[in-house]
């Protein structure tokens, strides 16, 4: 997979709101074999839209081309430039080019009659986020020492106090606090009887029975979300040679506005007021739209010459409007 490409399209905010209320969509197509034939992306108009993709091509075949119809490939196969796509009675297979030539195209070898071949690729609305490596669960120790338990040597604050039955005798037998302290220091505490059920003051190794989170395996690892691949080209096979042809996906894109009926994968022959950008030298490009004109970079960038796409050609709108005097 190649490095990600990025296309940023900016609209004047007020104009974007007006176009969205009219049901207009922002459309993108990619040129293959010098043709734009399929709407790769058709999205609602926003003040700023960012599209990203990388060459992760898939090839398919179909019966024919119909203007305004949505392409729905039944079977696709992964392919890259420099490969050879072999087609035999509807079955497709891909092999590497043995001689290493024609690295920029996908060669087609077929032993069947005329058909239409196409390419699709993923395209993402918004920046591409690289997949994050799975995080390992925290390691929980299987054993841990228990803290020492202190045996109380006297009454605590929580123990209930009882009134003596004979206050007079209690008063006479009671000793001053300082004498009580001396006796406590002089009289050593009796050793506690050994009882396995009674916790001792020495630390012990205790096994923790709490379950440890399982380490993810190949079966439990979460899979990355699948991004659908949308068709961006459909062309007739056999237009260059009788038994061989090829698909040449270029780095040129065509951008224009269309009605809300247009969807991803819609085949078309004509488009009005289009702009063309080339990402062969730079993997990112930016366009702006204001006042019915396309501009490079930003809303204050250089205004592009208005053009239409008509039956396989980019036509200069201004040049077409000039009437010619017959000879």
From TrEMBL:
What spans are recorded as compositionally biased (Pro residues)?
128-150
Task: Specify where the region named Disordered lies, as residue ranges.
Answer: 121-222
Highest taxon listed in the record's lineage: Eukaryota
The annotated regions of Low complexity compositional bias extend over 192-220
- The protein depicted here goes by the name Uncharacterized protein
């Amino acid at each position: 997979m190649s490095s990600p490409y990025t296309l940023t399209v900016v609209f004047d905010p007020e104009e974007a709101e007006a176009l969205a209320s009219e049901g207009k969509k922002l459309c993108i197509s990619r040129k293959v074999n010098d043709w734009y034939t399929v709407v790769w992306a058709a999205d609602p108009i926003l003040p700023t839209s960012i599209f990203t993709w990388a060459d992760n091509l898939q090839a398919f075949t179909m019966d024919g081309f119909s203007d305004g119809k949505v392409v729905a490939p039944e079977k696709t196969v992964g392919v890259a430039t420099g490969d050879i796509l072999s087609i035999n009675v509807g079955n497709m297979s891909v092999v590497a080019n043995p001689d290493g030539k024609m690295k920029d195209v996908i060669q087609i070898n077929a032993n069947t009659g005329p058909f239409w071949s196409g390419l699709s690729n993923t395209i993402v609305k918004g920046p591409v986020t690289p997949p994050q490596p799975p995080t390992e669960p925290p390691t929980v120790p299987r054993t841990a020492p228990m803290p020492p338990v202190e045996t109380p040597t006297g009454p605590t604050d929580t123990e209930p106090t009882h009134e003596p039955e004979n206050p007079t005798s209690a008063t006479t037998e009671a000793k001053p606090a300082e004498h009580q302290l001396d006796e406590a220091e002089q009289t050593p505490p009796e050793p506690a009887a050994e009882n396995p059920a009674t916790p001792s003051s020495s630390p012990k190794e205790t096994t923790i029975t709490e379950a440890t989170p399982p380490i993810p395996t190949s079966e439990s690892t979460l899979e990355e979300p699948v991004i659908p691949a949308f068709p961006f080209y459909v062309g007739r096979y056999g237009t260059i040679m009788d038994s061989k042809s090829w698909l040449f996906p270029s780095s040129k894109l065509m951008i224009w506005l269309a009605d809300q009926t247009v969807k991803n994968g819609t085949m078309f022959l004509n488009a009005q007021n289009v702009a063309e950008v080339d990402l062969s030298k730079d993997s990112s490009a930016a366009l702006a739209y204001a006042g019915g004109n396309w501009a490079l970079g930003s809303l204050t960038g250089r205004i592009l010459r208005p053009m239409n796409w008509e039956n396989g050609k980019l036509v200069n709108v201004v040049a077409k409007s000039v009437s010619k005097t017959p000879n």
